[in-house]
């Protein structure tokens, strides 16, 4: 025997809507994965050799709650406490004729590295590499912030972060409490 329950809205004990329906089968849910953002680097960024450098990721693809600073500090400071899935990648290059000794992408929380991804080409045979990084990080919703850094060690040429949505990206979204 089957049961049918009809309702246009489910609420928690505080009267907050958890899920709603418009009567035509279209559901509205609470903002589970918010705040969230994704951004990319719009112009090549020249960096110092063998030095950790913050990626100046300045172009937002989206920013649900205006928690990403894309013009001054290039950091994500979420206003809701919880666990966040964080991701980023930096395409690092050496100018033409140059070669890479090692490149690293690092996710920083409150100014300290919490996760890094390294690519170290054999015999310095590469002039372009993209280390990608992911992490699940607890954020307090008030003062914690996240940044994306790169470390580009070249054996010859000038190191840089390559611009574009497909080359340097940074994002995060809340996955739960």
Task: Write a brief structural summary.
The chain is built from no helices and 18 strands. The protein is an all-beta fold and 177 residues long. It has a single domain, classed as Jelly Rolls, CATH 2.60.120.40.
Cα separation of the termini: 37 Å
Strand order of the largest sheet: 7-4-18-10-15
Low-confidence spans: pLDDT under 50, at least 5 residues?
none
- Helical residues, percent: under 10%
As for the number of domains, it is 1
By oligomeric state, this entry counts as single chain
- The CATH topology comes to Jelly Rolls
Mean residue pLDDT: 91
Number of helices: 0
Structure class = mainly beta
Q: Kindly provide the radius of gyration, computed on alpha-carbon positions and rounded to a whole number of angstroms.
A: 21 Å
The number of strands is 18
Write structural notes for this entry.
By secondary structure, the protein is an all-beta fold. It has one domain: Jelly Rolls (Sandwich), CATH 2.60.120.40. The chain has no helices and 18 strands. It has strands at residues 9-11, 17-21, 27-29, 36-40, 45-46, 52-54, 59-63, 68-69, 75-76, 82-90, 92-94, 99-109, 112-119, 128-129, 132-139, 146-156, 159-161, 168-176. The strands form five sheets. Strands 7-4-18-10-15 form a five-stranded antiparallel beta sheet, with no helix packed on it. The chain is elongated.
Architecture blueprint of SSEs:
Elements: E1 9-11, E2 17-21, E3 27-29, E4 36-40, E5 45-46, E6 52-54, E7 59-63, E8 68-69, E9 75-76, E10 82-90, E11 92-94, E12 99-109, E13 112-119, E14 128-129, E15 132-139, E16 146-156, E17 159-161, E18 168-176
Antiparallel strand pairs: 1-2, 2-3, 4-7, 4-18, 5-17, 6-16, 8-9, 10-15, 10-18, 11-14, 11-17, 12-13, 12-16
């Amino acid at each position: 025997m089957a049961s049918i329950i009809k309702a246009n809205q489910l609420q928690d004990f505080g009267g907050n809507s958890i899920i709603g329906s418009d009567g035509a089968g279209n559901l509205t849910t609470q903002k589970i994965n918010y705040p969230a953002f994704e951004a990319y680097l719009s112009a090549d960024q020249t960096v110092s050799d063998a030095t950790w450098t913050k990626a100046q990721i300045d172009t937002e693809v989206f920013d649900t709650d205006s928690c990403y600073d894309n013009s001054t500090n290039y950091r994500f400071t979420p206003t809701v406490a919880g666990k966040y899935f964080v991701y980023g990648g930096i395409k690092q290059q050496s100018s033409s004729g140059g070669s890479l000794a090692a490149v690293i992408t690092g996710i920083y929380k409150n100014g300290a590295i919490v996760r890094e991804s390294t690519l170290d080409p054999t015999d310095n045979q590469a002039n372009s590499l993209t280390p990608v990084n992911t992490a699940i990080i607890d954020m307090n919703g008030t003062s914690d912030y996240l940044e994306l850094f790169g470390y580009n060690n070249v054996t010859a040429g000038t190191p840089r972060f390559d611009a574009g949505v497909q080359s340097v990206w940074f994002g995060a979204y809340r996955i739960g409490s």
